[in-house]
Amino acid sequence: MSELKRFKLPDVGEGLTEAEIVKWHVAVGDAVEVNQTIVEIETAKAIVELPCPFEGTVTELLAAEGETVDVGVPIITVDVGGGEAPAEPVREEALKDDLVPTPEEPGMTAPEQPKRQPVLVGYGVKPGATQRRPRKSAAPPPARPQPVDSGRVLAKPPVRKMAKDLGVDLSTITGTGPQGSITRDDIRAARQAPAAPQRPAVEGDEERIPVKGVRKATANAMVASAFTAPHVTEFLQVDVTRTMETVRRLRDLPEFAQVKVSPLLLVAKALLTAVARHPMANATWDGEEIVVKRRVNLGIAAATERGLIVPNIKDAHAKPLPELAEALAALTETARSGRARPADLSGGTITITNVGVFGVDTGTPIITPGEAAILAFGQVRDMPWVHEGELAIRKVTTLALSFDHRIIDGELGSKVLRDVGAMLEDPIRMLAWN
Question: Where is the Peripheral subunit-binding (PSBD) domain (predicted)?
Answer without folding.
Answer: 154-191
